[in-house]
């Protein structure tokens, strides 16, 4: 089976994925009275598992309601030692290099991976392990926070696949990695 590592993430106009205090509240700056999913529902149906870092995991665990994912979640952490009992069959802890993590996940039968979380996305980009980027831009300038992108050891080329506009203001662009 062909493997694919895809990022689906929101960012501010100035490129941040969390504000200066680590909050994501700004993602809801544009009113969305009909709870439009902006492609997320379709996207998540086509992934086998999610790979996220500790900070993203802890943020999701802090959300109200039940566990939001219906696919297995791999959490990258060397500091979390145990998963809460209600998540034992839904979450697996991993650590290591991005390459070893992907290899481990593939051995478990997961090949279409949603890569989520700032440091995780950055480390997978540095290892050139991202095949697609789906980036949703919220029209707000945060003036600081956690950036989506970091320095890379080499240039990575992507082709634009499509762009959609949601709620007349939110722009979502889909890019595919050019591999020679």
What does this structure look like?
The protein has 180 residues and is an alpha/beta fold. It has a single domain, classed as Dihydrofolate Reductase, subunit A, CATH 3.40.430. Helices cover 18% and strands 32% of the residues. It has helices at residues 40-44, 54-61, 98-107, 118-126, and strands at 4-12, 16-18, 49-53, 72-76, 91-94, 112-116, 132-138, 146-147, 158-166, 170-177. Strand 9 (158-166) and strand 10 form a beta hairpin. It is globular.
Write out key terms for the chains shown.
180 residues, alpha/beta, Dihydrofolate Reductase, subunit A, two-stranded antiparallel ribbon
CATH-defined superfamily: Dihydrofolate Reductase, subunit A
Number of helices: 4
Distance between the termini: 20 Å
- The number of domains is 1
The helix-and-strand class reads: alpha/beta
CATH architecture assignment: 3-Layer(aba) Sandwich
Low-confidence runs (pLDDT<50, min 5 residues)? none
List the helices and strands and how they pair.
Elements: E1 4-12, E2 16-18, H1 40-44, E3 49-53, H2 54-61, E4 72-76, E5 91-94, H3 98-107, E6 112-116, H4 118-126, E7 132-138, E8 146-147, E9 158-166, E10 170-177
Parallel strand pairs: 1-6, 1-7, 3-4, 3-6, 4-5
Antiparallel strand pairs: 2-8, 7-10, 9-10
Concise synopsis of the structure shown:
The chain is of the alpha/beta class.
